[in-house]
Amino acid sequence: MRTVNTWTGREARALRLALRFSVRGFAEHLGVGIRTVSKWESNGGMRRPQAAMQAALDTVLARTTAEEQARFDELTANSIMVGTGRGTARVWSNDEWIDDLDRARLSASQQNFNLASILAARWLARTDSGRLDDESVHLRGRTLMLLGDVARDQGRLSGPGSALSAYRQALQVFGDLRAERRMAQVELLLTVVHEMSGQLERSAKSYQELSADPRLSVLDQVRARLWIGTALTKVPESAGIEKLTAVAVIESAISEFEELDEPDEWNVGHQKLALAHLALDRCDDAHRHIDIAQAAQGAGTPLQNVKLDTARGHILVSDRETRSEGLATLERCRDLAGTHQLFHQVASIDRIIGSIEAQVNP
pTM value? Predict the structure, then answer.
């Protein structure tokens, strides 16, 4: 049985990974705080646990199975290290990276963009010049995707620090890894950015291609089909052919979401269908489908609520009899969107209000 003369954060991390513990689980196993384990690992070979913990780590190592011992030996021989710029070494854990990525994704889904950006960006900075294994490179790509999502939801579509920039970097990372599924997912996200930027015909064509792309999951393929309809709905001054096609495509996607048991996507589909009917001046159908979406949504996140109420407000302002109610709804949505840094939604609401004001006061 191998012994360790002096435990440092590097060996403690290797033992944790060999035992397949999370940071929290390892801390509980040793009877110490999570921060204690995190400090050991963040300082790598420069951090030595106290004498009592040296003995505790010896005991844990002595109780490992042969398989766990083999993993420990391999990990201590092949520690993942990155220079700190001061001649020292820092060790990070991919498990911690995954934990932070999960936290960042949850924060982003709740529109806590500042925390999501901090959690994601620190890993990019920490690993920028490191020697990464394939798993770490893959995590880097996923982190870039998340930062792209945050920038997209905030309306930062192009330029430095934008969704377009982050997604392109992620595409390069996954391309180097030949991770076909991830590449297709990023291509789909890039198409969303193109649509949001007003490149409607281009995005509709890309959605069409991706809707039959075998690299994507069935769910992502159906999302692409739904978004064909949203892009066609927005095409200005077109013949009714595109709008009718949009309705048919969206209806088909809604049916598929129901078959896949995806209630959130099904809900969004009805919102999109309501707007597609509105584009054809079918106000009764638009009201019917937005009511379906409203009834199904529940509490919702700020972004979900803003999107739903913006769609409802858009429908209401299109009718003279409900225009005042619609404008009030849109103003409330605008305030909520601004509070949560949903600046693309703010711009969309401003365009709707501006178009109505232009009709009333030509």
Answer: 0.73
